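Field: COMPLEX_INPUT
Field: COMPONENT_COUNT = four
Field: RESIDUE_TOTAL = 806
Field: MODE = joint
Values follow.
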Amino acid sequence: MSVCDEISNVFKDKVKCFTDKFGEVWIETRIDSLKDILKYLNEKLRFDHLSTITGYDTGKEIAIIYHLLRFGKGRAEEVNIRVYTNRDNPSVPSITEIYPSALIYEREVYDLLGVKFEGHPNLKRILLPEDVPEGFHPLRKDFKL
Amino acid sequence: MAVKLPIGPIHPMLKEPMNFTFYVEGEVVVDAEPNIGFVHRGIEKLAEKKTWFQNLYLCEKVCGICSSAHQGCYAQGAEKIFEKEPPEKALYIRTLMWELERLHSHLLWLGVIMHEIGFDTMFMYTWKDRERVLDLAELISGRRVGYSINTIGGVRRDISHEAIKMAMDVANYITERAKFYERVVLTERTILDRTQGIGYLSKTDAIRLNTVGPTARASGVRRDVRQDIPYGVYEESPFSIVVDTGCDVLARIIVRIREMIISAEIIKWILFTMPKTGSIQVKLSPFTKPPENEAISRVEAPRGELFYYLKSNGSQYPERVKIRTPTFANIVSVIHMVKGHYIADIPPIVAGIDPCLSCMDRVIIVDVNKEEKKVLSHQELRRYSIKWYKKNRAWVREERR
Amino acid sequence: MPWGILSKEAIKSFVKKPVTISYPINETSVPDGYRGLLSFDITKCIGCGLCSQVCPTGTIRMIPDERTKTKRRPLFELAKCVFCGSCVEVCPRKAISLTKNYHTAVIRKDEITI
Amino acid sequence: MPLFAKLRKWAFKRSLWAFHLNTGSCNGCDIEILDLFTPRYDVERFGIKMVGSPRHADVLVVTGPITKKSLPRVLRVYEQMPDPKYVIVVGTCGSTGGLFQGSYNTMGSVDKVLPVDAYVIGCPAKPEAIIDAFTKLMEKIERGRK
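Field: COMPLEX_OUTPUT
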């Protein structure tokens, strides 16, 4: 059974799952069920490797993607979970309890896009200097070079 | 007495600069906190202002040591975006460059770790051997470092007969030298004293902290993008993954030395099986507009899994280029590794994950109780650690038993 | 062996040819296809400006010049160059080429502008 | 020129101690600088030595376009160096900004911050070119500037 089916069986209409033409599995969901899905993927389906967290600005919303990997015999399986959050006050639950490596990735997304991760133990700027003014998030589309 | 010890604000690499604050009790590190970003150059934003083809050279400059891995990973992702398949010969040449880069990077790292533990003789030997690899790279690509050989839809240069001959020599030479280094590392007392049992990272922790690359493989985690998500010509190439269950710095040294032998084998295999003729590039105009797409590209860089996420919006310029470098993924595990070790062991542990060189330029020791500050340069820290080891050698060894 | 394996290596190195090159006295030879400083032949240039569009660093700027067809020529401020060679690949008349010249140390940045 | 000053200049010229400072380069130039001190190039035969502290250094070898976060550190390192002091910039990105021109987090080039004596263009520069830069600096000292 593919990952898509398993996730769709458990989370029903909370998720939209599809495979793109390059063979990547994409799961689109809403913020409120994000943590449950990640927990399920980590504990039940053994997706124990978080490659990174990508954030990008679409102009209307901010998208956050969690890139996960599962290793086993043969080819590793990839799953990417995407959530959208609003642009004015972006906030997503922190997943540091599930994936400790997210400590650094979440700080990076916060730094460059200004997304607040609720529940992160130490959410402050990581790449830019500390004295940068509030609201300076270079990867936002309205930030012009 | 709790002492705070920040390390290294002046810094080397894009996202892999490390400034750690170590909390020490006496000689023992109890906690650490990273502070990075001294080399943040805004590459991800700059990439949105350059065309797809100009970004090849920008991505190469993310890291000077694993430049080909970065450029190849970007090109691989961009090929998905453009929906173009590179010709077979191009993949062979690309893989050859990736493996050459692994050779030179591991030799470089071997020198650096030996320098950190105060064994400069071997540093000189490894860097001497590394020149052979760089000469070969210069012959193939036209530059010693920063090969710029990849392009979207293939590679830019064909490989000459002279280069094939030289590559064969280099592969044989490196195999021989790697075997020699392995013997040295396993018998030399200086090395064993300083690396055995240092920087312990158990298999469960390595998996839990999402460690990548040789650091993970030295903890017994069989993960290698080359085999898990095959790219280039690795799917056909017969090679084995090196795994060691030592979990310490010594294991990381051994894994990297054996990987050099494997790399040399892959190079020889490539030279034998590479198609002699054929095109090396799908011709694309540098102003081509790709369709709207998003792609993920993963490459096993010398330091571990390299990750690129690319998104196009139908114009000449990419919408988003996300880069996750391997050292960035390994920082969390460094914090875990240094806990419970002596200050003198910090240099080999931090160098153990291969954080792109001189990561610890300066050390400031802050005594929290007395509010005193003591500034140590990296050199001084090294000297201090070597001196400390000479003094305490006997009981440290006793304790480890 | 009480002396360690490396001592054997050290003794061997004594009798081998030295690795150190005698650079400032003798020039180092570089292989064909080395990507050194650019050279530009204005007689071949047609002034199309493709090179200035592909350059990732903005090294190449078009300036007015009477000698070409379109009355403009590229100016190479090589201090900004990263030696990628994309201008050489894109040039339709092969007016730009890479040389083997690696002497890039300068006191003033405009010394190597061509 | 008095004999002593001549002697001092001669001695200074032949024992340049360099401090290498990375201000945001990609490590490409850094390994090439480190390469200078290994068997193939071995610049110690010209009396050039790598030192671990700016207090001991005569020459500051800077690589990289100075990032905003490293700017205060660069200035502090430069102030710590004793006079006479010289600065060599290695790499295109330090000389002019190179690929990182217009970034929000870099200064563009080193000469906006420090007085630079010699540039080595190249991305990364060939070690021979870095040796050239030191030779040019020695000539400059011979002519006398500081």
